[in-house]
Amino acid sequence: MLRAISGTILARLATTVMGLLVAVIAGHRLGAQGLGIIGLVVLGITLVRLGMDLMGGGALIYLVPRVALRRLLPPCYAWALVATALGWGVVKLLHLVPEGYATHVAAIALLQSIGAIHLSVLVGQQRIRANNLITVVQAAVLIASFVHFTRHDAADAMAYVRAAYLSAAAALILSSKAIAKPPPPSGHGPLNVVRTLLRQGLYVQLANGMQLMNYRLAYWLIERFRSTAMLGIYTVANQLAEGAWLVPKSLALVLYSKISNSRLPEEQRLLTLTFLKLSMAFATGFVLVLLALPAVVFQWVFGPEVTGITPLLALLAPGIMGMAASQAYSHFFSGTARNVHNVIGSGLGLVATITAGLTLIPRLGLAGAALSASCAYGINAVYQTTAFMRITGTSFRDLWPNAADGQQLRHLFGRFHKPQGHR
After folding, report:
1. What pLDDT is attached to residue 418?
2. How confident is the model at residue 419, as a pLDDT?
3. Across the 423 residues of the chain, what is the mean pLDDT of every consecutive 10-residue run?
4. CA 81 to CA 79: how far, in whole Å?
């Protein structure tokens, strides 16, 4: 397990660094306006992919150990095509991305979604290393292509679109080869795969959809009430703050894989608690480092137009900590087929996002957006904590670090240090 966790952390570190490099290059060569357009394009791709993942993502990971791929993949592929058309229509009709980008957004989303289906299969098979390698290659192709396409002074946000095409295609090709020879399922799956995918996927995507709004609704509100340039500044601050989720998300990916393949409730509970505490420890350290950096560092890295980052990070910090905890809870609920709690938590957060966002962003600008995010993330985490404690019988004392955590960590990771013959 330690190998899977460390590999996932390194992979996410690499992709996070490369994602920040995209922002650095865009900030210097395209300015705050270019950063804002790229932020809207990425948001549009995420929105289109949201509908596609109704029959993929978490629901697929849950079923992979139980059902043969020949029964799982065809409905996932078919739905991806249907969802692309629907997503393209929504983005185009509501003008959610700048003029001329809607078709590109839908096409890139389709490529990414099919690749993501394959990556979910790898996670369900506990092939975390293959998943990580493909993810890193995808990010590397994106940054290399973006550097190439922004060499000229006349470059604009379309440079990012071209790079996104290449990176998505690379991930799709590699992931297709990786799942070409799947192992047989180890459990007895449901007879009606499509119905199961839809039932589990509906909860997952309702939660993901509302969580996406929690993450990104502020983007549209900032553009509406302020400007695209100010949105560019906020995307940089948000991306830096979300870097605190690097380790929590890495841990959560491994946790999901383990819980989905476990049938022991106490093992699932202890895994979640251990990963929760690790997530919070790493996220706290990351946030403190960001807050300690001088403001001039951010201007030097992201360009002279990117100002006021440190105050935004301070306002985002409480919510970032809440979502670090939520990473563990969300994957516990998904891995044990209790996705309804993710839906409720995200729904409560969305109510807070809309209420606070419409109130604070017109008045306080970027500071209002950061406060809205912290409020939404915090409410979601409080609900999930309460639900987890009620379901598993966990006490408040169990949530805090204690002497038993060291023993639990040695139990979880000890096998990594044993000689090969004793595994």
Report:
1. 45
2. 41
3. 69 82 88 87 87 72 80 88 91 89 95 92 87 93 94 88 96 94 66 72 75 81 86 87 79 71 80 85 90 89 86 93 88 82 91 93 93 94 95 89 67 49 37
4. 5
What sign for the dihedral angle of Cα 229, 230, 236, 238?
A: negative
- Angle in degrees, CA 171, 174, 175, rounded to 5: 80
At 252, list the tokens: 């959560």
Dist CA 269 CA 257 (whole Å)? 14
Measured in whole angstroms, the distance separating CA 5 from the mean position of its chain's CA atoms is 16
CB-CB neighbours of 137 under 10 Å: 19
Cα 345 from Cα 178, distance rounded (Å)? 35
Q: How many CB atoms lie within 10 A of CB 257?
A: 26
CB half-sphere exposure, 25, CA atoms < 13 A: 24
Per-residue pLDDT, 194: 77
Measured CA angle at 113 (ends 37, 40), to 5 deg? 10
User: Rg of the chain over CA atoms, in angstroms?
Assistant: 21
| Distance of alpha carbon 132 from alpha carbon 211, whole angstroms | 24
Query: Is the distance from CB of 52 to CB of 79 less than 8 angstroms?
Result: yes
- Whole-Å CA distances, 408 to 1, 259, 267, 280, 414: 13, 16, 11, 17, 10
Total of domains in the chain = 1
| b/e code 27-41 from CB counts within 10 Å (16+ = b) | bbbbbbbbbbbbbbb
pLDDT of residue 33: 86
Residue 350's domain comprises: 2-422
Closest to 114 in 3D by CA, of 97, 138, 147:
138
Q: Which is nearest to 254 in space by CA: 146, 347, 332? A: 332
Question: Which residue is listed with tokens 């951010």?
Answer: 298
Query: Helix, strand, coil % (nearest 5) of the chain?
Result: 85, 0, 15
Helix (H, G, I), strand (E, B) or coil at 235: helix
Q: What angle do CA 93, 41, 231 make, to 5 degrees?
A: 105
Neighbours of 296 (CB within 10 A): 10
